[in-house]
Amino acid sequence: MKKVFLLFALFVSMTVSAQRVEKVGTVQLGLPYNEALSAIKAEFGEPVSVSSDEVIYGKKNFRGFNYDEVKFRFKNGRFNEARFFMKVGSKGGAQKRMEDIARELGKTEGLSRDIEDNNTWFYKGGISPVGVSHLFTIYTYPKQGTYGTELRYGPVRFPEN
Description:
Blueprint: H1 2-17, E1 23-24, E2 27-28, H2 33-44, E3 49-50, E4 54-57, E5 60-62, E6 65-67, E7 69-75, E8 78-89, H3 91-105, E9 111-115, E10 121-125, E11 136-143, E12 146-153
Antiparallel strand pairs: 1-2, 3-4, 4-7, 5-6, 7-8, 8-12, 9-10, 10-11, 11-12
């Protein structure tokens, strides 16, 4: 009986500490820098800028939407965040694009709508690979007299090795 209990306890502890595997496109969050960079280049091509903290692309299509800028970020040598920026122009146009992106991502991910303190709404969805938080956020933002829409995965706070 003790052996069965020990095996059960071991199984439960392994299950609780396991991380979910989540991806941005085909690139797994949490990959070490070199592996992630290779996977990012395989999916998105050659970036316009590369550093140890960030990989930047100009115009890219992702999940059927054209983005003006895409940033893949790294913390502690691991891929932990992706940001997809779309310049739209008007606030109404940015909100419509946010709705369109939410509708598309909602086909494969759990999604909820929430409201900021300033009464602007946004979407969050998916499940973070390291906990109960959400995986991505879709929101609008004002910048230099115009509006944009952003899809952000992460940032995921992976445990340090």
